[in-house]
Amino acid sequence: MAARKTDKSTKTTRNTTSSSSRRVKTIKIAVEDFILDHQSQNHSPQTLRWHTIALSHFLNYLEQEQDVTIIDQLETYHFRAWLVFLEKEVGPRGKVRATRTRRWYAQSVHAFGRWLYGERYIGEDFTERVKLPKLEKPLIRIIEFEEFEQLLDACAPPQEKSLTAERNAARNKAILWLLWDTGIRLNELCDFRLSNFDRQNGSIIVYGKGRKERRVALGRNALRMLLYYIDRWRYNSDDLQQLGIIDSGHVFLAETGQALTMHGIQMLFKRLRMRADIGDHRITPHIFRHTFAVRYLMLGGDIFSLQEMLGHEDISTVKNYMHLNDVNVQSQKRKFSPGDNVPFLAQSRLRNPGKRKVDAKKEKNV
């Protein structure tokens, strides 16, 4: 029994020592552990990038402005002071950061605080009582039908007739139709592979944030344009071998045969916008995502299926699109009005609700 007590005591001492070593860990090392934990959970590169940017800024602020480097020194005050500093600081682009950007930064630090508490590095979450920067209802722009038509017409460079130009035009149209019809994210578009295309059922398999898989059906137009590009214009394995490229299976390829990158598609959209002469309106893959969501709701789709197709975990994110669709919402209200669907009310009463009162007065006078 004594031996057991000794072992238990030794184990307790080790745990205490381990906890003690954790408490003196620097914030910099803790941030590295936090990022590593996200990587081990297969979170998206974009999520890792945002956490790295936000936490690096928070870390630099603590070191330079507050002289704080150890986890035990972290207090709620530091988080609030950093948010105030962030609001006034001029960013890399020469202007103060937008509220949405500051909120993203704050969300990363919030997640870091919860993680520190969950890992028992700290006894209390220093971010728990701090409210995030308040966002106004987002003003979401969508692409009009005329703009979409102009973009499709701009897929081929004017007055350029060549095999490469035709191949690029077919690819660009397939990209536009796929974004218009599915609302997938830019990184999901870049990662789209031939193995994720279900020809038989006319659908695609998309890997979203955290590599979560979802299936999205294609409409007839998008399916037709995608098949036209893949079967007739996309480089096949022999073509790529001649170019010295191993076929990675990515659907959308650059002229070199390499898979189109996020930067490559962003530059493509800039060229399309200039050719289409749309004006000052921004045209990006993410605006296509907004457009898909709003038009899906306008055509009678429900927010729950939309949430599934967009790959959002939180339904509140999808509800942001509802206020853009007020006309359709009011139309739906009239169509499914509970007040117009009361079975015990006779049709005659609905046609002339005041008639019964008039008849009652006549009977009383008689």
TrEMBL record:
Keywords assigned: DNA recombination, DNA-binding
SUPFAM superfamilies hit by this protein: DNA breaking-rejoining enzymes (SSF56349)
Residue ranges with Basic and acidic residues bias: 1-10, 356-366
Domain Tyr recombinase: 138-334
Record Gene3D superfamilies: 1.10.150.130, Intergrase catalytic core (1.10.443.10)
Any Gene Ontology biological process: DNA integration
Region (Disordered): 1-23, 332-366
Annotated Core-binding (CB) domain residues: 25-117
MF-aspect GO terms: DNA binding
Biased composition (Low complexity): 12-21
Source organism superkingdom: Bacteria
Protein family according to the UniProt entry: Belongs to the 'phage' integrase family.
Protein name per Swiss-Prot or TrEMBL: Tyrosine recombinase XerC
Organism in which the protein naturally occurs: Dictyobacter vulcani
Highest classification ranks of the organism: Bacteria, Bacillati, Chloroflexota, Ktedonobacteria, Ktedonobacterales
